[in-house]
Structures are given as structure tokens and as C-alpha cells.
Design brief:
Elements lengths: L2 E7 L5 E7 L3 H10 L3 E8 L19 H8 L17 H16 L4 H11 L4 H14 L4 H6 L7 H13 L2 H47 L16 H35 L2 H13 L3 H22 L4 H10 L4 H7 L2 H6 L4 H4 L7 H13 L2 H57 L1
Antiparallel strand pairs: 1-2, 1-3
Helix pairs in contact: 3-4, 3-8, 4-5, 7-8, 8-9, 8-17, 9-17, 10-11, 11-12, 11-17, 16-17
């Protein structure tokens, strides 16, 4: 197998070098990334990689390269590099930011750092975007100017953070903070999604179980109850009737459900539908408190991060308001930039129906002490922790509720069938 000599940057910014075996250049770069190293240069070499000393397994003969390639072709690995991606997604932004911070911190010029990323990027949207950034830099423009051309990948918050790093001369430090911010946002989002997977599976199983029982199990007992008429218990008659509807019109029910979901999604995309959904998300028990605290945490972390990196108060407020997802909360914050422009204080302009007394007090203390950015970041940390705790607590209640609900519905169906059977036996006797 070919050998490659490499130079790479570690997460701490230190330079690492050595020789490794790989099938080709791309495989060598992937090996380095798997070891959390950002490759600077990877070149073929005639050197031989010495085997490591270890157990008896290391001394066993290895299969030849062609055999290994054939066998590995049968393996489905989730770590394979995706080729031909059509968009530069959140994970790509996080990876780009973290690697740029490491490369710049290691002393590489900006254009060279982007060139290193281009060499190791997969074909598709990622490589195309990086090449566009490099061309913009070669044209004498700042990195932030190149990012502005791709609003689909980089939002106003990201661009203004980069611009503040360029103005202060500490771009690597700003990118490191950006990577931390994006990683934290990803962690919070992933924790909520992963926590919802199990309840979602339970809900789907519950619906399918009831559908199968009504559509396939209950009709099997219908012949037994044909001659009973009105003498059947009310519960049994109701269940048999539901079974007939599901068995005869099940396809129509599925079609109507699909159309309803499609229509609901279209309606929620309208202004009125979004307003209704945002209102319900804030007023529902358990969910409302979580949604409110999540939006406040997002606003506080965005504004605190911007202020901490030298962005002007007015500009930071405008950007932070734009990052709020709930339309009702964002509407309540739209007057903030104008209030600050007139010389007002942030703590007095914030809506007390959105921000708790504790949050307002923390903002007020930050203003009086001259450390508003620090207090906003602490407020975001507190609210993010509360969001995670409340999500876990809500799911702790939701999971047994779903199980009991599913079991209760199935128990009612079984009870109705048993009551009908007992009624038949009584008439026979």
C-alpha cells in the first residue's frame, strides 16, 4: 500500500508530522481527520511505515490491498465522506469554522488556510463554496465580503462576528468563539431531538397498533356477533362499527390524514398560521416554558457573543433580534434598536412578559457594571441548562403517558370484544 508523508495541525494548534499508509491521497486525508488532525500537506513518499509493537495480532499477515478493497466495499460505514452534497449545511459551517480557527492559530495565512480546506474537501457544495471564498480573497476582498455572497450558508450573526475579528486583528480567536457557539447550539438542538425520538416512536406504534386491531382483528369477530343485534353491549357495537369503518375505508383515512398534514404544513407557512403556532407553542403546558426560555437563551447568547467581540451595541441588538425564531417574541423585541438609538437602556426596553425578573435583573447588573456581554452569556447558560432539564422532565412524564394511553385504548378494544363474547355465551346458555 502506498505511503504518504504528512504535516498536520492538531486541535491545540501544534504541528504534527509523520508517515502513514493509505490507498490514495483522499484516504490519507480522511485518516488524519479521523485523528482530529487538519492536514497541511500530504505527499507520496517511498518511506516504509514501521509496524507498531504490540500483541500477536499485529504480527499476523495482512491481506493484500486488492482483497482489502473488495471486502471493505461490502461494509456500510456511517463515517464515509458524502460526495456531491447539494448544500453547505450547519455541520459544514461548524467544521469550516473550527478548522479555520486551528489553521490561523497555527500561523497560516488566510488564503493558505482556505486552500488547505479545499484540498481535503469533498466534491460538491463544500468545495464550490471554499473555492468562491478563495477567489474573493485573491481579488483583494475581506473574508466577510466573500461570506456575504452566500447568505444561504452564513447568517448576519456569523458575518458580523467575522467582520469584528478582521477589524480587531484577532480573527482566529473570533473563529474559535464562533465554533464554540455553533457547537453549543448544535448540542442543545441535538439533545432536544434525541430526547423526542423515543416518544415519537411510541406515538407511531400506538397509532399503528390501534389501526391494525380495528382494521384486522375486530372484523374477525364480526361473524360471531352477526345475530346478536341490539342485544350486544354498547361498547362492543361501537368497536365493531369502528372496525367496519377502518376495514372498509382505511385507505381513505390514510389519504385524508396525509392531505391534512400537507394542508397544515402549508397553513403554518403563512403569517396567520405561523402566528397561531407560535402562540400555542408559548401557551401549552410544559412546552410553553421550554419554548420561551429557548428563545431568550438564543437572544442572550447571540447578543452577548457579539458584544464580547466588539460589535457595536445597536448593531448587536439588531442582529440578536433577527435570530429569534418565535414571531411573537421577535415582534416584541423589534423596538429595541430604536430605543437604544434614543439612549434608552436595554433592561428597561425588554418586555417583562418575555424576560423574567431574574433575567431583567441580570441585564441591569451587567449594564451598571459595564459587563453586559458577560452577564448575557451567563443568562444564556442558565436558560440553556433549564431548557435541557425541563425537556428531560417533560419527557419523563410524556413517555409513561403515551404507554398508558396506548395500553388503555387497546384494553378498551379487548374489553369490548370480551363483553360481546360473554353476551353470546349468555344467550347460548
Amino acid at each position: 500500500m502506498p505511503a504518504f508523508r504528512y504535516r498536520a495541525v492538531g486541535q491545540s494548534g501544534s504541528i504534527d508530522s509523520g508517515v502513514l499508509n493509505a490507498r490514495d491521497l483522499a484516504s490519507a486525508q480522511r485518516q488524519l481527520r479521523a485523528q482530529r488532525l487538519t492536514p497541511l500537506s500530504v505527499l507520496p513518499t517511498a518511506e516504509v511505515v514501521q509496524p507498531r509493537e504490540g500483541s500477536g495480532k499485529d504480527s499476523l499477515p495482512l491481506p493484500d490491498a486488492e482483497t482489502a478493497r473488495v471486502l471493505l466495499g461490502r461494509v456500510s460505514s456511517g463515517t464515509r465522506v458524502k460526495k456531491g452534497k447539494k448544500r453547505f449545511d450547519r455541520d459544514d459551517v461548524l467544521r469550516f469554522t473550527a478548522e479555520m480557527a486551528v489553521l490561523l492559530n497555527a500561523g497560516l495565512p488566510l488564503d493558505r488556510a482556505i486552500k488547505v480546506q479545499i484540498d481535503s474537501a469533498a466534491d460538491g457544495a463544500q468545495k464550490t463554496l471554499l473555492e468562491e471564498l478563495l477567489e474573493s480573497l485573491k481579488g483583494g476582498k475581506a473574508l466577510s465580503a466573500g461570506l456575504e455572497k452566500r447568505p444561504d450558508a452564513f447568517n448576519h450573526f456569523y458575518i458580523n462576528m467575522v467582520r469584528s475579528g478582521e477589524a480587531s486583528g484577532h480573527l482566529s480567536d473570533v473563529l474559535r468563539e464562533l465554533a464554540t457557539y455553533l457547537e453549543r447550539a448544535k448540542t442543545v438542538r441535538a439533545s432536544v431531538i434525541s430526547a423526542l425520538i423515543y416518544p415519537a416512536i411510541l406515538a407511531v406504534v400506538a397509532v399503528l397498533s390501534v389501526f391494525v386491531m380495528l382494521g384486522f382483528v375486530v372484523p374477525e369477530f364480526e361473524a360471531l356477533f352477526e345475530d346478536m343485534g341490539e342485544s350486544l353491549p354498547l361498547l362492543t357495537r361501537a368497536i365493531v362499527g369502528l372496525g367496519d369503518v377502518v376495514s372498509a375505508w382505511g385507505w381513505l383515512l390514510v389519504l385524508l390524514s396525509t392531505v391534512t398534514v400537507w394542508w397544515a404544513r402549508r397553513w403554518f407557512a403563512t403569517a396567520k398560521g405561523r402566528e397561531w403556532l407560535d402562540l400555542k407553542s408559548l401557551t401549552l403546558p410544559l412546552v410553553g416554558s421550554i419554548a420561551l426560555k429557548y428563545e431568550v437563551a438564543r437572544f442572550a447568547r447571540t447578543m452577548g457573543t457579539l458584544l464580547n467581540n466588539g460589535v457595536a451595541m445597536l448593531r448587536a441588538t439588531d442582529i440578536a433580534v433577527g435570530t429569534v425564531g418565535n414571531s411573537l417574541i421577535r415582534a416584541s423585541l423589534l423596538e429595541l434598536p430604536q430605543t437604544i438609538k434614543r439612549g434608552g437602556r436595554l433592561s428597561q426596553a425588554l418586555d417583562a412578559r418575555v424576560f423574567s425578573p431574574v433575567a431583567l435583573q441580570m441585564v441591569r447588573v451587567g449594564e451598571e457594571s459595564g459587563s453586559l456581554d458577560t452577564m448575557l452569556l451567563e443568562l444564556a447558560q442558565v436558560y440553556e441548562s433549564e431548557v435541557e432539564d425541563e425537556v428531560k422532565r417533560a419527557l419523563t412524564l410524556l413517555e409513561p403517558a403515551l404507554i398508558l394511553g396506548m395500553g388503555g385504548i387497546i384494553a378498551i378494544i379487548i374489553m369490548g370484544i370480551l363483553m360481546g363474547i360473554l353476551s353470546v355465551n349468555t344467550l347460548v346458555v
